Amino acid sequence: MSEPADKSAVTNVVILGAGVIGLTIAHVLSSDSPDAYNIKIIARDMPEDLASQAFASPWAGANWSPMRGFDEKQQRRERDTFNKLWDMIPTGLVMPLPSRVFYGDNDDLEQLWYKTLVRDFRVLESVEVPEGAKAGVSFTTVSLNPEVYLPWLKEELLSRGVQFIRKKVHSLGEVVALAGLGGVVVNATGLGARSLIGVEDQDVYPIRGQTVIVQAPSVKEFISFPMGEPSTNGEVTYMIPRPSPPGQVLLGGTYQPGNWDLSVDFPTAKGIIARCSALAPALRSPERRILSHNVGLRPARKGGARVEAEWRRLPLETEWLSAQDGAEPQEGEVLVAHAYGFGPAGFQNSWGAAAEVMSLIKANLNKTA
Hints:
Radius of gyration: 21 Å
Protein name: FAD dependent oxidoreductase
Shape: globular
Domain FAD dependent oxidoreductase: 13-357
Cofactor: FAD
Oligomer: single chain
Order of helices and strands: EHEHEEEHEHEEEEEEHEEEH
Strand content: 25-35%
Largest sheet: 9 strands, mixed
InterPro entries: DAO, FAD-dep_OxRdtase
Binding site for D-dopa: 238, 298
Helix content: 10-25%
């Protein structure tokens, strides 16, 4: 029989946020070093709160949908995530998804960074490109359903002893008592990073997304037109079939930076259905049924996602809340790892970002060992 783990060597990790980023970080930490960390996840909204608009993860398209541009860190995160999700296909949580992505220009499509990562990549012939676009590519990617995937992540974590605490946190300093001096706080608060005392990142902003979920079993591919190029009123067009329940397809959508409106706009919904139906005639079939209208706020950040770690001295200068038990504020240092601001790419960055956060935590803790 093996000896029990040395309790004094266990590091307390408190993760703020139970969206896909926070949950995946907990999964990676508990997988890599199951006896090294005592993990707690604190959040106002939990993975089972799938109707809550207070966090973004339940409303995501949640396919792996590559972006143009050249950001080496983001590409590494997305590469790692694609490979992980592809390996998960046999579980049924993830499915391979034939895709066509159309663009408003034809520059360097043969040089797209992800062409050797996705399966079956090719540049489309001009006759395969619909009116309004100039070029396009096809490939096989992956998709999942957040309504199934998020609860699965939570069950996985519960089976590993990860604790979930439902609590609205106003300040970074509030969680220090749980992490303890020398512990780790992971800030995976998404849009909450804008108002979290001790972080107060004013570069964080929402990108409003409105979608429609339909039952349309004849729609079998992801189509985006044109990718990454919203119109002046924020309209974008895409459809994402999901692995479960069978036949569900997400239709989108909108891409509206700075818009905090969480209400459904029905003229917008009609436009989404009309644009998607023009690209996929199967959506005009009598078998198509509208299941729900959804609005979510993608948690974006000027300059891109923040994935970094810092030691913070306590008490925080901006701390203004009194300890609930009347105790004096702790003095010392705590390691804070930030992981937020992924915008429309939270799911497709999740496993890569989690591995990066784990590396940051290990490197910083080793410096103090």
